[in-house]
């Protein structure tokens, strides 16, 4: 079974982000790290591959400047190889353009299963994986909190507001996993050393046969017209318990219609 995992490489969340003044998009020019959301997908893929003999895990990412730092982290966890789509003409791509580029790379890899996170932690439209499934012509199962497969059929416990649904679908398919679907491993020292020599195939738009006018700024169907600072959080109210603390908290919660 060939499992492909989408790995988004994002600016380090520990460093305050910067927005481009003209396009209002996130400055992604520096070193990028693996989005924490995708560590669950990588771990899930490694575990599923371990369950089916002869399986392997390939990572797929789209990022500017040939950036591979985040991919190396995922390779250190145990994936066999990676594909990076990187091309100056992709600058300004919206979610659909990103999906088109990733779909073209994934199609070449001929996967049995594609795993992505439910949403990224920087852009988080939460739309990219279902666009991928549509472009690849594969069924899509979202919000997985448990995944198993025999290499032919996918079985998913799909998180709902009330609990979970048990979903079964044939492979190949696209599945999005929630944080907590599995506990991601920490890369070992041996894994980190091995990752340095694992292959990363860097593909341009020409390699993928994608018309540059179909992606990037020219192909984008979304435009960021303005950005504004989030409203500062109002100061909280400290309730001093003078014997009526519980009643005042109940009254507060009733006012919010929580109870
Ligand atoms: C007008 C516009 C211009 C933009 N310009 C740029 C730009 O110039 N440069 C830029 O980097 N971004 C740009 N973006 C943001 C970019 O479109 C999104 O980050 C990207 O499309 C993915 O959307 P998302 O983060 O909302 O993914 P979600 O749908 O929230 O992601 C879900 C999952 O899909 C997978 N995934 C998402 N993106 C990738 C990826 N790139 N590689 C691998 N897996 C992925 C991951 O598993 C992720 O957890 C722009 C957005 C808009 C609207």
Keywords:
259 residues; alpha/beta; Rossmann fold; nine-stranded mixed sheet; two-stranded antiparallel ribbon; 8 helices; binds flavin-adenine dinucleotide
Task: Offer a concise description of the structure.
The chain is 29% helix and 24% strand. It has 259 residues and is of the alpha/beta class.
Can you give a write-up of this model?
By secondary structure, this protein is an alpha/beta fold. It has a single domain (2-219), classed as Rossmann fold (3-Layer(aba) Sandwich), CATH 3.40.50.620. The protein has eight helices and eleven strands. The chain has a nine-stranded mixed sheet, sandwiched between helices. A hairpin with a 3-residue loop joins strand 7 and strand 8. It is globular. The N and C termini lie far apart (49 Å). The mean pLDDT is 95. It binds flavin-adenine dinucleotide. Flavin-adenine dinucleotide binds at residues 6-8, 25, 28, 35, 37-38, 41, 61-62, 91-95, 98, 102, 116-117, 119-120, 122-129, 220, 222-224.
């Amino acid at each position: 079974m060939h499992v492909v995992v989408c790995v988004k490489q994002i600016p380090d969340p520990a460093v305050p982000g910067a927005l481009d003044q003209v396009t209002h998009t996130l400055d992604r020019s520096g070193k990028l790290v693996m989005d924490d959301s995708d560590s669950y997908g990588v771990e899930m893929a490694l575990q599923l591959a371990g369950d089916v003999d002869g399986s392997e895990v390939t990572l797929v990412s789209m990022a500017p400047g040939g950036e591979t730092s985040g991919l190396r982290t995922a390779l250190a966890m145990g994936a066999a190889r990676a594909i990076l789509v990187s091309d100056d003409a992709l600058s300004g791509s919206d979610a659909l353009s990103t999906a088109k580029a990733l779909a073209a790379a994934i199609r070449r890899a001929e996967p049995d299963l594609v795993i992505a996170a439910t949403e990224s932690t920087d852009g988080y439209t939460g739309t990219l994986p279902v666009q991928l499934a549509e472009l690849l012509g594969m069924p899509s199962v979202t919000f997985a909190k448990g995944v198993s497969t025999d290499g032919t059929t996918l079985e998913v416990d799909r998180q709902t507001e009330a609990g979970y649904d048990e979903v079964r679908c044939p492979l190949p398919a696209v599945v999005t996993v929630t944080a907590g679907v599995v506990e991601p491993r920490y890369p070992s020292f041996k894994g980190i050393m091995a990752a340095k020599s694992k292959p990363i195939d860097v593909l341009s738009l020409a390699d993928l046969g994608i018309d540059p006018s179909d992606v990037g700024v020219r192909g984008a169907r979304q435009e960021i017209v303005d950005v504004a600072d989030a409203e500062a959080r109002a100061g909280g109210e400290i309730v001093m318990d003078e014997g009526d603390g519980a009643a005042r908290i109940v009254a507060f919660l009733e006012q919010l219609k929580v109870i």
